[in-house]
Amino acid sequence: MIREKLDLRDFFDAYDRGDPHMKAAVSELHCQILREAPHLLDPKITWFEYWKGTRGGKRNLKTGFPESDANLRDLNQKLC
Description:
This protein is mainly alpha-helical. The protein has four helices and no strands.
């Protein structure tokens, strides 16, 4: 049986910040990336540079304000 691979763009298009199931899925994906491919979360990686250029960097989902690198490290440690 051939399975079609998931396309993350579909998840981004449908993402609802208020849906706890979606938040849980993103948290699980984040933890799995940390375990299996941590280089993908390096702030110097190409995809992040593209994202940072369009969004102004990581923002707090509740306030909309940019988060410092220290806050991101603390959050990563709490999630996984």
